[in-house]
Design a protein that fits this description.
The complex is a heterodimer of chains A (590) and B (569).
Chain A (H helix, E strand, L loop, with lengths): L7 H10 L1 H33 L8 H45 L3 H9 L2 H12 L2 H26 L1 H25 L3 H21 L1 H6 L3 H54 L7 H11 L6 H20 L23 E10 L9 E9 L3 E6 L5 H10 L4 E7 L2 E2 L5 H7 E4 L10 H6 L7 H10 L3 H6 L17 H14 L4 E5 L7 H14 L4 E5 L3 H5 L3 E5 L22 H5 L13
Helix pairs in contact in A: 2-3, 2-6, 2-11, 3-5, 5-12, 6-7, 6-11, 6-12, 7-10, 7-12, 8-10, 10-11, 10-12, 16-18
Chain B lengths: L2 H11 L1 H35 L7 H47 L1 H4 L3 H44 L1 H10 L2 H36 L1 H6 L3 H54 L4 H23 L1 H18 L20 E8 L9 E8 L4 E5 L6 H9 L6 E6 L2 E2 L5 H6 L1 E4 L10 H6 L7 H10 L3 H6 L17 H14 L4 E5 L7 H15 L4 E5 L11 E4 L9 E2 L2 H6 L7
Parallel strand pairs in B: 3-8, 3-9, 6-7, 7-8
Antiparallel strand pairs in B: 1-2, 1-4, 4-5, 9-10
The chains are: A alpha/beta (590), B alpha/beta (569).
Membrane topology (chain A): Multi-pass membrane protein
Subcellular location (chain A): Cell membrane
Pfam family, one (chain A): ABC_tran
Chain lengths: 590, 569
């Protein structure tokens, strides 16, 4: 979260790596237009000399030149396109892996909060915006500048006065057209991006709230809102289009200005005998041919606005800033299994310094080999606690131990072998069911997959799939219900084969029968493994060895009260015991 | 109809904007030709007569005027083509919005929504290039080259003939090579999008990848995928760029050929200098529009792909045909399902089969059964979000299909599994259900759903903004607020879909007590639940089971005693 400045730094850091290819592409681009300019110069010279009735033999060189530059232009353009596209792909690969590496280094809590706000999909579209950064933004001005200088130098070879004038006129086009576009569309690019985000939000609301909108008769209200957002988008786009048009118009004006500025001087030189009359036409046509290089500038300015906005957003996320925090020396050692699978003591956690504590003074422990249930009001921090245990990327105060080891000391690999977590909204990848499951254990056999699927009560469902384990999941695949999704994630977690299994409402969307089946399997995992499950469901509470209740008292104060195992929950324990929270957390161990 | 043609038809529907944009583009193209002719004239005079600059006055004035006019036209053309694009996009946008709401939540919710949103936002945006760039450029590319050939031929038959022979090769080669490359090119384009999709997928699944310790590995995969894509794409591009190479070759070589033949003819004196210069200046103007058109190939292709998706949505048939003479909505809420089967189009199995149920006015019925058995489908059918594929639903003897949908929905209140709230204040959201309700009334209902203490803690009380989609509230709070909103609505039929799934048992019991009090004796209730506690609201529990399609009504007692309950009333 450091320098969130212009976004330029980030772009340069990516471009630095691929610069040789980019330089070659720019050189080829320059040479392409240069041959075009040369073709104009030579052919103009050719017909002027011919009009003066010089012997045909003297024209031979010009004739060869015309053909040569004609071929050159086509060939060079072809090469330039190949090289610049290859450079673009290299840049894209660099950006993708760079972004991914930075995101990968983030704290999972931070990642999840980004995911909720749709920030992650914006990262992807921002990278896509930057995909053409070289082709659309960098190349046009570089080539335009090179051609302007080359052309003016060429003319200066005949007469410095002509060279200077050519530089002046082309310079106006080089500077004024982009400047005008920039000035007229200033802020419009950012406004468009912002308006498009609001428009998208309005669509999300329309589609996700469609039922309620129809029932409340609020369709018109929603239509008005999306219409309004679209108007804002189009207002910004209109400014941008107008600015681009103005930039193009300046290009046209510069093209008209060239003969008006150069012809009087050239005529004067001819009349004074300082310039051969055969070269007169060429002096005017050459800078006009050079204008081709300036044509892409207004569009480049417009793309620059979008690219910078995208880069700024990426930079604001801390992407491309190298790595995240320095690696700590982490232990890989497997500690001897202690009496407690997990222990929390005076645990405090909040997502960032400005927000209130989500967990404040949480203390409890789960004995190894028990089936523990964590319940309590929504918002009490149950899910946060599970995520801290499974992801444990610092940020918390107090003690949090997995099998006797501080979670802060465990590296990712060790933690992965110790603890598996099924979240409330697990992600399924665009891949087959088999691959989605195997993610947790790459070499798993089909027999192992089926065993895990059976434990998650998926066998019947898999049999009903068109391609069984080879059925495609994710955005492009089958549409899974929430319950199916959670069970797939559960099977995946079971395959991970960890001593501790953390489950966040794994049966919330299951019917009673399926729930009983899943619970029985989970129960059978103990005492070889430890299970901690967040749930409100009575069936789960009933079969727990131990129940913890997290409470949201007053602010975010939490107490964990163990309930004797297998006691039917006729009375809400929280109502009685929660009234007098006990003070010494260590006595709450089951 | 091919998407491109249909896009063209859409543009033509906005006649004024369409004609303005295209005619200005065409006139701009013509002006470029005229400007070249005037310049040729000026240069020829300067070359042949070497006059004082001042002597060229009138010609220079005309030239300057032309340039200024063309600059203004260029600017106006960009504005007009943008205007055309904006008009068409806005029209499509409105049409799509109405269509998707008409298709209803049964169509739009779930995983599909992501794709629908992308189509409605980025998809429509991709059409922009078609209307604002491709379409005007096509007109220019169709008109200007012909004009140039005619103009050249009028001045110099031989050169005109040469251009007339050379120019057609451009489209011929572009089509020949383009056809060959296009299939591969398009596949590559799809591949590129797929790679972006993979990137998105991996990034969104990053927390999951970290949990299973596979996140580092994906870094290699992304790098490898991009590299492999780059190398195969470059192979394809080598062919795809050939069409551009041919275009360039034809353009530059015919210019070179013209220059050489003109040079030779000038030496022999068979052509005048001014004509030669004019031909030389005009030749590039012939190829420039074609080149610009080629540069927009990808934008046009992306637009066609996007258009295909948009049109597919617009053409999606509505399940419910609007009746010519709708019947009045009955005031008595006797609801009757007669042998109702519901099988959504494209689904291999029905979500509900042979369902029979009669709910008397004022009766409270709970629907239970395993997930996937069609409980929510029953509610969807009543709400008009789905249509039965067989059987019928009667409201006080009148078929539901004969009732005007909007009027019928006014009689129904509904709490869905994920209720929607506007990004306004708490009060506004409640008033949507009952405009003009007094604060005291709102507070009474909020207290009944156990939101009283929550509101009391809010410094702004009822004026508290709820945030986007009500996200400032917790899941449980949103659920209770949705209940309050539904109860506030003066609708005789109340549908509840898992109304307490996110509440802890203590709160649940209290909320259900409140709901019971508010229901009174008149409201008819249909309730779907997995949890035992809400069953206490019901007079009758209906068990749907997948195996026996015709479901008899069971009594609640067995279910009520199966699981221990928490929180007694």
């Amino acid at each position: 979260m450091q320098d969130t400045g212009s976004g330029m730094g980030l772009l340069w850091s990516w471009m630095r790596v691929t610069w040789p290819r980019l330089a070659v592409a720019a050189l080829l681009g320059t040479l392409t237009i240069a041959s075009s300019v040369a073709l104009t110069a030579v052919s103009a010279g050719l017909i002027c000399h011919a009009a003066l009735r010089v012997p045909l033999a003297e024209l031979q060189l010009a004739i060869v030149g015309v053909r040569f530059f004609g071929l050159c232009r086509a060939g060079l353009r072809y090469l330039e396109r190949l090289v610049s596209h290859s450079a673009t792909f290299a840049l894209l690969a660099k950006m993708r892996t760079g972004c991914y590496r930075a995101l990968e280094a983030m704290r999972p809590a931070q990642l999840r909060s980004l995911g909720r706000g749709d920030v992650l999909s914006r990262v992807v579209s921002d990278v896509e915006t930057l995909e053409h950064f070289y082709l659309r933004v960098v190349a046009p001005p570089v080539i335009a500048l090179a051609i302007t200088l080359l052309t003016s130098a060429l003319l200066a070879g005949w007469s410095p006065a002509l060279g200077l004038r050519s530089l002046a006129v082309l310079g106006v086009g080089l500077v004024l057209a982009p400047l005008l576009t920039w000035r007229l569309s200033r802020g419009a690019g950012a406004a468009e991006v912002q308006a498009r985000a609001s428009l998208k939000a309005a669509w999300v609301d329309t589609l996700q709230g469609a039922g309620d909108l129809l029932l409340l008769g609020a369709q018109e209200r929603m239509r008005a809102r999306t219409g309004q957002e679209l108007k804002r988008v189009q207002a910004a786009q209109s400014r941008i289009a107008s600015a681009e048009g103005a930039g193009n118009a300046v290009g046209v004006l510069v093209g008209g200005l060239i003969p008006l500025v150069l012809l009087p001087v050239a005529l004067d030189l001819v009349r004074r005998g300082d310039l051969g009359v055969a070269d007169l036409v060429m002096m005017v046509l050459v800078p006009i041919a050079a204008l081709e290089a300036l044509a892409g500038l207004p569009l480049a300015v417009q793309s620059l606005g979008h690219s910078l906005a995208a880069a700024r957003r990426l930079q604001a996320l801390g992407l491309g800033a190298g790595g995240a925090e320095a690696e700590r020396t982490l232990t890989h050692a497997e500690g001897a299994p202690g009496p407690f699978a997990l222990e929390a003591c005076e645990l405090r956690f909040r997502y960032d310094a400005e927000q209130p504590w989500v967990l404040e003074g949480t203390s409890f422990a789960v004995r190894t080999g028990t089936f523990a249930v964590l319940t309590g009001e929504s918002g009490a921090g149950k899910s946060t606690l599970l995520h801290l245990l499974a992801e444990a990327q610092a940020g918390h105060e107090g003690e949090l131990q997995l099998a006797g080891q501080d979670v802060r000391d465990l590296d990712e690999e060790t933690r992965r072998r110790k603890v598996a977590l099924v979240t409330q909204s697990p992600h399924l990848f665009n891949a087959t069911l088999r691959d989605n499951l195997r993610l947790a254990r790459p070499g798993a056999t089909d027999a192992e997959l089926h065993r895990a699927a059976d434990a998650a009560c998926l066998t019947g469902w898999i049999a009903s799939l068109p391609d069984g384990l080879d059925s495609w999941m994710g955005e492009e695949g089958l549409r899974l219900s929430g319950g199916e999704r959670q069970r797939v994630a559960l099977a995946r977690a079971l395959l991970q084969d960890t001593p501790l299994l953390l489950l966040d409402e794994p049966t919330a969307e299951l019917d009673t029968e399926t729930e009983q089946h899943v619970l029985a399997h989970l129960k059978a995992l103990c005492p070889q493994r430890t299970v901690l499950m967040v749930t409100h469901r009575p069936a789960a509470l009933a079969c727990a060895d131990v129940t913890f209740r997290m409470e949201l008292g007053g602010g975010v104060r939490m107490d964990c009260l163990p309930v004797e195992s297998h006691r039917p929950l006729e009375d809400p324990p929280g109502r009685h015991e929660g009234a007098t929270p006990r003070q010494s957390p260590r006595t709450f161990y089951s | 109809m091919r998407p491109e043609r249909r896009l063209g038809a859409l543009a033509r529907a906005h006649r004024g904007a369409f004609l303005a944009a295209l005619s200005v583009s065409a006139v701009t193209g013509v002006f470029a030709v005229v400007q070249a002719a005037v310049l040729a004239h000026l240069l020829a005079r300067a070359f042949l007569e070497r006059p004082e600059w001042e002597a060229l006055g009138p010609g220079v004035g005309a030239f300057a005027a032309l340039v200024v006019a063309r600059a203004v036209l260029t600017w106006a053309g960009r504005r007009l083509s943008h205007h055309l694009a904006a008009r068409v996009k806005a029209a499509l946008h409105g049409e799509l919005h109405a269509k998707l709401l008409a298709l209803g939540p049964a169509f739009t919710r779930g995983e599909r929504s992501g794709e629908l949103i992308a189509t409605a936002t980025e998809g429509i945006e991709q059409l922009d290039a078609f209307f604002s760039r491709v379409l005007p450029q096509r007109v220019v590319a169709g008109l200007v080259p012909l004009g140039v050939i005619v103009a050249v031929a009028l001045k110099d038959g031989a050169s005109g003939a040469l251009l007339a022979v050379a120019a057609p090769w451009v489209p011929v080669f572009m089509i020949l090579i383009g056809k060959q490359a296009q299939a591969r090119n398009e596949r590559q384009w799809v591949e590129l999008r797929r790679m972006a999709a993979h990137f998105l997928d991996v990034i969104q699944g990053l927390p999951t990848l970290k949990l299973v310790g596979r996140s580092r590995y994906q870094l290699e995969v992304i790098g490898r995928m991009t590299e492999r894509f780059a190398s195969t794409t470059l192979g394809v591009l080598r062919v795809a760029f050939l069409s551009a190479l041919v275009l360039e070759l034809v353009a530059t070589l015919s210019t070179a050929l013209l220059a050489v033949t003109l040079g030779v003819r000038l030496v022999s004196g068979t052509v005048g200098f001014e004509v030669a210069l004019l031909v030389l200046l005009l030749a590039p103007e012939l190829f420039a529009p074609l080149r610009a058109l080629g540069a927009q190939h990808h934008a046009g292709m992306a637009a066609a792909t996007a258009a295909e998706r948009i049109f597919a949505l617009l053409d999606e048939p509505l399940t419910r045909a609007e009746r010519a003479a709708p019947r009045a909505v009955p005031s008595r809420m006797q609801v009757r399902f007669e042998d109702v089967t519901c099988q959504p189009p494209g689904s291999p199995v029905p979500t509900l089969e042979g369902f029979e149920l009669t709910v008397s006015p004022g009766e409270r019925v709970a629907l239970v059964g395993p997930s996937g058995v069609g409980k929510s489908t029953v509610l969807d059918l009543l709400l008009g979000f789905r249509e039965p594929s067989r059987g019928r639903i009667l409201v006080d003897g009148v078929p539901l299909a004969a009732l005007p949908l909007e009027a019928w929905r006014k009689q129904v209140a509904w709490v869905s599994q994920c209720p929607y709230f506007f990004d306004t204040t708490l009060r506004d959201n409640l008033l949507l259900a009952q405009p003009g309700a007094a604060d005291a009334e709102l507070m009474r209902i909020l207290r009944e759903v156990e939101l009283g203490p929550v509101i009391a803690r809010l410094p702004q009380g009822l004026d508290t903004p709820l945030g986007e989609r009500g996200l400032r509230l917790s899941g449980g709070q949103r659920q209770r607020l949705a209940l309050a909103r539904a109860l506030l609505q003066d609708a005789p039929l109340l549908l509840l879909d898992e109304p307490t799934s996110q509440l802890d048992d203590v709160t649940e019991a209290a909320v259900l007590q409140g709901v019971k009090r508010l229901l009174g004796r008149e409201k008819t209730l249909l309730l779907v639940t997995h949890r035992p506690a809400p069953l206490r609201l019901a007079d009758r529990v209906v068990v749907l089971s997948g195996r026996a399609p015709r479901t008899p009504a069971h009594t609640a007692s067995a279910l009520l005693h199966r699981a221990p309950l928490v929180g007694h009333s």
